[in-house]
Amino acid sequence: MSRRRDGLIIAMDGPAGVGKSTVGGLVAKSLGYRFINTGEMYRALTWKALERGVDLDDHDAVLAFAKGLNWEFKPIEEGGVALKTFLDGEPVTSQIREERVSVNSSRVAANPGVRKLLSRFQRDLGERGAIVMEGRDITTHVFPDADVKIYLDASPEERAGRRYKQLKASGQDADRGAILAAILKRDLSDLKREINPLKQAQDALVIDSTRLTMRQVADRILRRVRREAKHGRS
Questions:
Q1: Distance of alpha carbon 75 from its chain centroid, rounded?
Q2: Domain 8-17+136-213 listed as CATH 3.40.50.1460
Q3: Backbone angles phi and psi of 148, in degrees to 5
Q4: In this predicted model, what pLDDT tens digit does every residue of 88-140 receive, in sequence order?
Q5: DSSP letter string, 71-134
Q6: pTM, to two decimals
Q7: Which one, of 63, 59, 16, lies nearest residue 190 by Cα?
């Protein structure tokens, strides 16, 4: 007998910098669901491995290291919808934004054993439903039977522009050309990755957010969610 579900499973994939976390948070808050950015799991592990001097290219060593950690996923603040990654009791939040993490996380994400381990965590988190989960392979691998599947996209130039504005607004130096180059490199890495590469699920709602606000994207997803809920998929 299958376990009772508390709500729908909403899975969202898409390339880097497309606004999945912002949109996912808006959708989760509107529905009273939990939200998790699965990319933060890989970034958290990358940071912890770098701190401990683990060779990121040694797949067996990284996997053994990951298995030896105490993983928890919970909100930082009481009543928050976003589940954050805690490693050995420590919230890994600001650390995952470090540049050394950004440039090395794809090496960890390409580790087959790590992907299998973290995919299991992700399924455990989402099996009861009432969750919005975003990443690169959520609709195609982690929850191919999700109630609602979204593929969020935007032009590389638009994504670079958004990131440029974010950095400038926070007082950081930013080079739009360098940001665009990094996005294109990450896109290629995600698409060409041997293990669970980024791709559109055939039954996903594809949304190009290039000329949309994040609120408009969230509203479009919520319309799809309400339609699915009306048909009793909960």
A1: 16
A2: no
A3: -130, 125
A4: 999 999 899 888 998 899 899 999 999 999 999 999 999 999 999 999 999 99
A5: EEEE-SSTT-SB-EEEETTEE-SGGGGSHHHHHHHHHHHT-HHHHHHHHHHHHHHHTT--EEEE
A6: 0.89
A7: 16
Ranges 22-26, 52-56, 80-84, 196-200: which has the least confidence: 196-200
According to DSSP, the β-strands at 9-13 and 34-37 are unpaired
Spatial neighbors of 155 by CB under 8 A, at least 6 apart, are 210
Dist. CA 135–CA 156, nearest whole Å = 17
At residue 31, the 3 state secondary structure works out as helix
User: Could you state, in order of their start, the residue ranges of all structural domains in the chain?
Assistant: 8-17+136-213, 34-128
With left for phi above 0 and alpha for psi between -120 and 50, is residue 14 left, alpha or beta? Answer: left
User: What superfamily in CATH does domain 34-128 come from?
Assistant: P-loop containing nucleotide triphosphate hydrolases (3.40.50.300)
Q: What burial letters (b/e) apply to 43-67, b meaning 16+ CB within 10 Å?
A: bbbbbbbbeeebebeebeebbebbe
Q: What is the CA radius of gyration of the chain?
A: 17
Q: Can you read off the two tokens belonging to residue 85?
A: 């990654």
Q: Which two tokens stand for residue 105?
A: 């996380």
- Please write the tens of the pLDDT for every residue from 64-77: 999 999 999 999 98
**Are 8-17+136-213 and 34-128 equal in CATH topology?**
yes
- Residue at 18: amino acid letter: V
Task: List the Cα angle 163/168/174 in 5-degree steps.
Answer: 70
